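Researcher: Structure for this, please.
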Amino acid sequence: MVNIMVEHEANEKTVEVDRQGRMVLPSRLRERLGLKKGGRVSIRLENSSKVIIERRTSEKIEERV
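Model: Predicted structure, token format:
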């Protein structure tokens, strides 16, 4: 898997999507989100072109339902 990252500014990176549709969230962004191995994020599409990634709490889904 090859990922190309271009830094636009401190909060923005461009990454390449691989053949399986995966992309890597750059380490600086993971650090700023406080994400560690096993961490969870919520991903949503906004205005048909903007992807929002937010850190989720460690609360289990079963506890929220």
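Researcher: Any notable elements?
Model: The beta strands are 6-9, 12-14, 41-46, 50-55. The first strand starts at residue 6 and ends at 9.
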